[in-house]
Amino acid sequence: MYNLILLHHRQSTNSLHQNLSFILNKPFDVKFEQKPKPTLSSPHDVLVAVNYTGICGSDVHYWVEGRIGDFIVENPMVLGHESSGTVTQVGDAVKSVKVGDRVALEPGTPCRRCTPCLSGHYNLCDDMRFAATPPYDGTLTGFWSSPEDFCYKLPDHVTLQEGALVEPLAVAVHIVKQAEIKPGQTVVVMGAGPVGLLCCAVAKAYGASKIVSVDIQASRLEFAAKYAATHTFTPERVAATENAARLLKETGLVGGADAVIDASGAEPSIQTSIHVVRRGGIYVQGGMGKPDINFPIMALCTKEITCKGSFRYGSGDYKLAVEFVASGKVDVKALITGTVKFEDAEQAFKDVKEGKGIKVLIAGPNEK
To answer: What are the DSSP calls for 264-297, one per residue?
Structure first.
């Protein structure tokens, strides 16, 4: 009997140091592996049991290509960064959350000391440690350690599934902030993927009067029309100027849109966008595509367009995203296509790559 008890004790002790994770070795080569359970490295840190993780386009890109720009997967890396979870341990100095709290996880930790960080633009930190961006592991794992101020407590009526979508919603919040949308303005959003749809929803929450969703997939436009867009448009394989002219005519955007957001990264969409935005308007590049493209620079100059990039999220974006969900101003639940078990993570990646559904969630390995 003693030997059985000792064996059970050893198994229990070992389990405390096990952390099942979904790991990318190289393109199309993934595995499940136990990694050490994180420990708290600071009295301000918390340990979170990951409940749900969404699949982002960047995750799929790493899975397919093994790289995004200069970020190259050279060693095995845990995937995932759109996550929610439950606090299981807190450091001695933690005040904002407690054990048992349900939180949305902001997956990047900046240095907090550089000029961008001190100016409130920590998303531009050169020393950012961002989940599932080489060489840092992601959140498709059992437990995740995080600074307390990058964990956002979810209100009781907000589900953990909704909490996993706070990350892409924060991306959309940042993009729409860059676009400087004001009540009564008009906006065109290129791309009706998750971020594009959320940009439409955030623009609506900001008071935009006309929101045009543009995509080549009819099913996505049908969803966009029910979700947050006031108008939809399907481009054709013609010159960007022709698509722009037809878009403006069909949607009644006389003189162009106040702001155009590209959430696709597709070269034709970017080209069309510049011809759609009004003189003196704002263009925001939110989607990532090829490193270099042909760009209508003459139109940019003669229309005196303000052109901005948008990268992840900055100060206040996550907090506002949680408030949008909590208040019902943005419905993220409608984007959730389904949830799969942790052991089915690879199939979920395949489905997302094939364009099935809008947002697929993967339950954490400890989620029952």
So the answer is: S--HHHHHHHHHHEEEEEEEEE-S---SS----H
> Sheet containing 186-190: which strands, arranged edge to edge?
231-233, 210-214, 186-190, 257-262, 277-285, 306-309
94, 54: one domain? yes
> How many of the other CB atoms lie within 10 Å of CB of 142?
21
Q: How far apart are CA 65 and CA 59, in angstroms?
A: 10
Q: Is 45 helix (H, G, I), strand (E, B) or coil?
A: strand
The verdict on residue 187 lying in a domain is yes
pLDDT at 368: 67
Whole-number Å distance between alpha carbons of 362 and 202: 25
The rounded distance, in Å, linking the Cα atoms of 134 and 62 is: 10
283 is in which domain, residue-wise? 171-309
Tally of structural domains, the chain = 2
Same structural domain, 337 and 206:
no
The three-class DSSP label of residue 102 is strand
In a domain, 290, yes or no: yes
- Write the CB contacts of 350 (distance below 8 Å, at least 6 apart in sequence): none
> Within a domain: residue 91?
yes
- Could you tell me which residues are beta bridge partners of residue 90? 46
Q: Which residue has the higher pLDDT, 239 or 69?
A: 239
Cis peptide before 135 (omega within 30 of 0): yes
- Residue 3: band (very low, low, confident or very high) from pLDDT cuts 50, 70, 90: very low
What's the whole-number average pLDDT of the chain?
94
CA distance from start to end of the chain: 30
Do 49 and 157 sit in the same domain of this protein?
A: yes
Q: Which of 303, 301, 331 is nearest to 202 (CA)?
A: 331
